[in-house]
Amino acid sequence: MERVDKILAHPEFQVYMRRIREQERTRVFCLHGIEHSLDVARIGYIKNLEQGLSFRQDVIYAMALLHDIGRCEEYASGKSHHEAGAELARPILLACGYTEHECAEICDAIGRHKAPSEQARSLATLLYDADKQSRNCFDCPVQEQCYWLEEKKNHTIRY
């Protein structure tokens, strides 16, 4: 998990997270800060263990921490946060000691976390599921304003 700590301390990661926090200052639901990223990481790791997957804990945490950093670009330019996040994550991952193979796998998952992967046991599917299951819609004070379809909202605690 030393590499995960390096991500948290990485100056670019910190800038992206500050920008997202500032850009979401008036947003009332589904924020994309560090709390959300850590929820996604923990849920992803639990699912990894439950399903007998073999993804490393530090790979799951890196993916989760970086999966929404592209939001700052989406808010600024309209570019997909999935695509932007995959691009922004790569240099951070390399600087923090992740291998080329790990970078490719993590960036692929970040770039595809909008929709579930056709591969049930993929890192992208793990991210997609953990991201969606991290939301506590049942306790959201503005759930009536949410754009999620009712059947996609989390009405019970899953993890």
Kindly, what is the distance between the CA atoms of the first and last residues, rounded to a whole number of angstroms? Answer: 22 Å
Order of helices and strands: HHHHHHHH
Which descriptor suits the 3D outline? globular
What's the number of extended β-strand segments? 0
Percent in helix: 55-70%
Put simply, the count of helices is: 8
- Give Rg in angstroms: 15 Å
Structural class comes to: mainly alpha
Which tags fit this structure?
58% helix; mainly alpha; 159 residues
Q: Brief description of this entry?
A:
The chain is mainly α.
Q: Can you describe this structure?
A:
- The chain is mainly α and about 160 residues long.
- The protein has helices spanning about 1-10, 10-25, 35-50, 55-65, 70-75, 80-95, 100-110, 125-135.
- Helix 4 (about 55-65) packs across helix 7.
- The two termini are about 20 Å apart.
Q: Secondary-structure map with pairings?
A:
Layout (H helix, E strand, L loop, with lengths): L1 H8 L1 H13 L10 H17 L6 H10 L4 H7 L3 H15 L4 H12 L11 H11 L26
Helix pairs in contact: 1-4, 3-4, 3-8, 4-7, 5-6, 6-7, 7-8
